[in-house]
Every structure is written in C-alpha cells, then in structure tokens.
Design a protein that fits this description.
The chain has 4 helices and no strands. By secondary structure, it is mainly alpha-helical. The protein has one domain.
C-alpha cells in the first residue's frame, strides 16, 4: 500500500522534532529538549501509524501536538529572535497544524 501524503509529511515532522530534541541536548546539554523531543516524536509517530486506519482520530491528535509545538516554538522565537531553530520549527509547526486541520475538515465531509 502506498504511503499517503499526510503520512509522508508526518514522518518528516517526526524526524525533525526528534532530531531537534537530540541536537538541543547535544548542543546545550538540554535534557528537557531530549525528553520532550522524544515524547513528541513518538506521539507523532503514533499519528503516522494511525492516519491510514483512522484519519480523523490521528489528525486530531496531530493537530493537538502540532498546535502545542506551534505555541512553544512561537514563544521561543519571540523571546530569542533566532530564525534557527525556533523560527524554522514555528513555520513547520504552523504548516503541520494547518495540514491536520485540513485533514479533520476533509474527513468530516
């Protein structure tokens, strides 16, 4: 079975969030980045596995996770004014939040 576009984007988001948590830990010795990056990446991987089976449920979970990341990275970007990593994660989280909203709305029709 071919992978859905929403799955591909979610899998990329998983990799970016997990990698970001790891880099935050290695660069700044931030255990918080490692722990939350791992938790969010694992949760988003669950969304990835559920998208073909139950798209509304998976999109709702993905929406909550991406919206949370959107808020957190938005505050970090505002505080630090650094494009990388906070600004990049803010933009990616915004795109994914919009994608999950689209997935929920499309599935409800």
């Amino acid at each position: 079975m071919a992978m859905l576009m929403s799955q591909r984007l979610t899998l990329g988001f998983v990799a970016l969030v997990g990698f970001g948590g790891l880099v935050g830990y290695l660069k700044n010795d931030s255990r918080k980045s490692l722990i939350f990056g791992g938790i969010f990446a694992a949760s988003l991987y669950y969304v990835y596995t559920q998208l073909p089976v139950n798209p509304v449920y998976a999109s709702c979970i993905g929406l909550g996770l991406s919206a949370t990341l959107l808020g957190v990275t938005g505050l970090q970007f505002k505080k630090s004014d650094k494009v990388f990593p906070a600004g990049v994660m803010f933009v990616v989280s915004l795109i994914m939040t919009e994608g999950y909203i689209h997935g929920v709305m499309r599935s409800l029709h």
